[in-house]
Amino acid sequence: MGTSSDSPQVRRVTAAEIARRAGVTAATVSYVMNGRPGVSDATRYKILNLAEELGYIPSALSVRLRSRHTRVIGAVLNDIAKSPFHDTEIAGGVIDAARTMGYEVFIANTGRDHSRLKVVLQAMADRGVDGILTTILEEGDADLIRSLRKAHLPYVQITRRLPLVEADFVGTDSETAATDLMDHLIGVHGYRDLVLMGGPQRSSASKEREAGNQRAAETHGVKIAPTDRLSCELSEADSYRATMEMLKRRRIPRAIICGADVIAWGALAALRDRGLRVPADVAVTGFGGREFLVSDASRLTTLQVPRQSIAVQAVSLLINRISGNGGAYRTVLLPSPLKLGNTCGC
């Protein structure tokens, strides 16, 4: 004996059917569903009304799409595995700040392949984010960022910026931080044989910190030779390698000033493996402010980066831009106070 069912058959509505009924292309439907510009209001409302009527999208999402805002922002980060403390804290701060303002966050990680930035930005645009925050801009990315402006997609630069691109920026006051550090190392401890070990020169943050350190040292009458201004990737392994190479070609410096805490960690490991004592033989400082135990009785002297404040300021600027209340582009530089540990000689 056969069986029968009284359950209604539910037919899944497709975007192609919406396009056919609305008399538009599938690409136009995709633009509307992702909240992207380039579609007239009349066509947008026609597609959304039809999609909601057929059950293609829920009514709550339909309301948001009509306003052309999804209340989602994107955050593009570096390799979290490579700089775990910096980017994870920035990400957490962005998520918390955005939620208090009624927004959710779509986070993407470019990993070790910076060329993926273009793909990541396009993916965010395709998903209809209302704006983008990025921490990873490098020299050569200007055209990518200008493409966001052409697409009317607001963005804010965090910690790294492109000097030739007008945009909002939130970062640290590297000049004041460098002055405070040099006042301590040279003015208090009397160190004059200094090596700078910064991050990659394609990063504006690395270049600003190095320039600030040089200028601050010169105010104390200390000139740092070009051969003593080193760059490495933001990893312990590359910092370790750079420190070992430096120790092979010159006498032991009195202090190594690192442009990031992760660089300081690699330098400390290299000094230890060379049998050198910190800070008795070589002082070491970082930049970032993460708690780092060098030994049972010693902690890294570093400059504190106010990541939570940076995140809150950046989200606020971006949402103002999304709301049309941004005004003139702003540069917000937050203080990085000196956090004394034992590696400087204190």
Describe the structure.
This protein is an alpha/beta fold and 346 residues long. Helix content is 42%, strand content 15%. The chain has a six-stranded parallel sheet with strand order 2-1-3-4-5-13, sandwiched between helices. Strands 7-6-8-9 form a four-stranded parallel sheet, sandwiched between helices. The protein has a two-stranded antiparallel ribbon with strand order 10-11. Helix 1 packs across helix 2 and helix 1 crosses helix 3. The longest helix is centred in the first third of the chain and has 17 residues. The N and C termini lie far apart (91 Å).
Brief summary:
By secondary structure, the protein is an alpha/beta fold. The protein has helices spanning 15-22, 26-33, 41-53, 59-66, 84-100, 117-126, 142-150, 174-188, 204-219, 236-249, 261-273, 307-322; strands spanning 72-77, 104-109, 131-134, 155-158, 168-172, 194-198, 229-231, 255-258, 283-285, 293-295, 298-299, 302-303, 331-334, 338-339.
**Secondary structure: number of strands:** 14
Low-confidence stretches: 1-11
How many alpha or pi helices? Answer: 12
Biggest sheet descriptor? 6 strands, parallel
Mean pLDDT: 85
Strand order of the largest sheet: 2-1-3-4-5-13
Overall 3D shape:
elongated
What attributes characterize this protein structure?
346 residues, four-stranded parallel β-sheet, six-stranded parallel β-sheet, alpha/beta, single chain, 12 helices, disordered N terminus
